[in-house]
UniProtKB/TrEMBL annotation:
InterPro entries: ABC-4_Integral_Memb_Prot. The chain crosses the membrane at residues 21-41, 53-72. This is BH0274 protein. It comes from Halalkalibacterium halodurans (strain ATCC BAA-125 / DSM 18197 / FERM 7344 / JCM 9153 / C-125) (Bacillus halodurans). PANTHER family: ABC TRANSPORTER PERMEASE-RELATED-RELATED, ABC TRANSPORTER, PERMEASE PROTEIN. Keywords: Membrane, Transmembrane, Transmembrane helix.
Length: 73
């Protein structure tokens, strides 16, 4: 039994675990990417960082970052 055979058996046996990990990682990165596209859009420069909307955007950015980190781990 070679190392490659053991690796392939392990992947095939646990394919649903790998698929769920991959999908949760893709979902969290996709949400983070969409949020950052919205946050750094050129029209968002008109919003003051000290306003309530600016603070909410920064807070939401941190929350999305933490959830993305947790999903990937």
């Amino acid at each position: 039994m070679s190392f490659n055979h053991i690796v392939i058996q392990n992947i095939v046996r646990d394919k649903w675990t790998y698929i769920s990990y991959f999908l949760s990682s893709v979902f969290s990165i996709l949400v983070f990417f969409f949020f950052l596209i919205t946050a750094f859009h050129p029209m968002m420069d008109a919003i003051d960082a000290n306003s309530s909307l600016g603070i909410a955007m920064i807070l939401c950015s941190m929350i999305v970052y933490i959830f993305s980190f947790i999903f990937i781990i």
